[in-house]
Amino acid sequence: MVSDKIIWKGDEVSNTWVRVSSYGSLSPVCQVSGFCFDSEGKVLLVREPGEDFWMLPGGTPEDGESFEETLVRELDEEASCDIGEPSLLGAIKVHYPNNPKKEQGENFFQLRFVARISKVKELTNDPDRGVKHERIFVAPEDFCDYATWKKMGKVMMRDAVELVGEI
């Protein structure tokens, strides 16, 4: 378990990484994203046009959708990639006292999965945002140069590399 504090949109947010094998007791889950690896062992990152930060592809579960289905859908929408069966890696426990999304509350979870990319397609517009995301594939050791998650990013990537070797 490792924790970091970040400033998000002017507010301090505390994040704690927890490696878990089941999400049954984690509630509410407000985001699902994945460490998705290509055939060369590189991890996929995306960013929206005009943004200066890279992120793991993912998003918010829709009604009636499993967390795994959310990840599969978001990978297709944001990165135009198909993946194999996602494996749960862990969760980030988020404490966001000034969360503007009142329905999420101050404390919620973001799930992280690991998956292998089975197909990289031509990039298309994300139907939710109407923009075409940029995508890159980076070596695991370079992950924190793009996704600036401090020490928690290093631990999550280490855990992801370990799990992807098992699937």
Look at the structure and give the mean pLDDT: 92
The CATH class turns out to be Alpha Beta
**Strand content bin:** 35-45%
How many distinct helices? 3
Main beta-sheet annotation: 7 strands, mixed
Helix content: 10-25%
- What is the CATH homologous superfamily assignment? Nucleoside Triphosphate Pyrophosphohydrolase
Estimated structural class: alpha+beta
What is the H/E order?
EEEEEHEEEEHH
Distance, first to last CA: 23 Å
The total tally of domains equals: 1
Q: What are the salient characteristics of this protein?
A:
Nucleoside Triphosphate Pyrophosphohydrolase, 3 helices, two-stranded antiparallel sheet, 7-stranded mixed sheet, 9 strands, alpha+beta, 167 residues, single chain
Written description of the protein model:
The mean pLDDT is 92. A hairpin with a 2-residue loop joins β1 (2-8) and β2 (11-19). With 167 residues, the protein is of the alpha+beta class. The strands form two sheets. Strands 1, 2, 3, 5, 6, 7 and 8 form a seven-stranded mixed β-sheet that branches. The protein has helices spanning 67-79, 143-146, 150-164, and strands at residues 2-8, 11-19, 29-37, 43-47, 58-59, 81-83, 87-95, 107-120, 134-138.
Question: How are the secondary structure elements laid out?
Answer:
Layout: E1 2-8, E2 11-19, E3 29-37, E4 43-47, E5 58-59, H1 67-79, E6 81-83, E7 87-95, E8 107-120, E9 134-138, H2 143-146, H3 150-164
